[in-house]
Write a structure and sequence with these properties.
The protein is an alpha+beta fold. The chain has three domains: about 90 residues, Ribosomal Protein L25, Chain P (Beta Barrel), CATH 2.40.240; about 80 residues, Beta Complex (RNA Polymerase Alpha Subunit, Chain A, domain 2), CATH 2.170.120.20; about 40 residues. The chain is built from four helices and 13 strands. Strand 5 and strand 6 form a beta hairpin. The radius of gyration is 27 Å and the shape is extended.
Length: about 220
């Protein structure tokens, strides 16, 4: 399902550089640039809260409204975020037009429960699709309901929304269903891997660890008494 257009009322930027960008962020604005279709780039100061909310969907269709300019449809091309704080540092916006087809990455959403004692691995978190700019889906849904061990779902098998076509490699592995490994099997595989790597455990260390566990158990019993 595609999202509605989101309007962002923006100011034009006249100051540039790191100092100017920090000043904008302190004023709850996000530095941005809008470009494309052979037009001269427009430097913007977007409202932080509205922009932050809008970009929760990476393919949100934005209507950029600037005083003295015609409204412009845009998609976020690149979003630079602070690695720690919930801050958007800069946004690159690309101009688009109604009726235009674009190629975007769309998140893969897995739903349902596979057969018992299986593990569902999502190998491809996103897929590239080509679709009308006004009808971009928020996600692609893949059902794993009841799927058995050994089942693999490739990109070509993922259902595309109406009007969209797959742009990723059709043979790309998206979902893989494997057998759940028990704790005993996992421990045996770990021991085998360590043996192949030449890792040896000192028996005295193991005995010391056992002794510590026994001592702790004795102390616990004494406290209970």
């Amino acid at each position: 399902m595609s999202t509605d257009e989101i309007r962002l009322v923006s100011d034009k930027r006249t100051e540039f550089g790191k100092g100017a960008a920090r000043k904008l962020r302190r004023a709850d604005k996000v530095p941005a640039v809008l470009y494309g279709h052979g037009e001269a780039p427009i430097h913007l100061a977007l409202p932080f809260h509205d922009t932050f909310q809008a970009l929760k969907n990476p393919n949100a269709l934005l209507t950029i409204s600037v005083e003295g300019e015609d409204d412009q449809l845009a998609l976020a091309k690149d979003v630079q975020r602070d690695p720690i704080k919930p801050i958007i540092e800069h946004v690159d916006l690309v101009m688009v037009k109604r009726g235009e087809k674009v190629t975007v990455e769309v998140p893969v959403h897995v739903e349902g429960d596979a057969a018992p004692e299986t593990v569902v691995t999502v190998d491809a978190q996103t897929l590239e699709i080509e679709a009308d700019v006004t009808n971009l889906p928020e996600s692609l849904t893949v059902s794993v309901e009841g799927l058995e061990v050994g089942t693999q779902i490739h990109a070509s098998e993922v259902e595309m929304p109406a009007g969209a076509t797959l742009a990723s490699d059709p043979e790309l592995l998206v979902v893989n269903i494997t057998q759940q490994i028990s704790a005993e099997e996992l421990e045996a595989e770990l021991a085998e891997a360590e043996a192949e790597a030449g890792i040896e455990h000192d028996e005295s260390d193991a005995e010391a660890a056992d002794g510590e566990e026994s001592t702790e158990g004795g102390e616990e019993s004494s406290e209970q008494e």
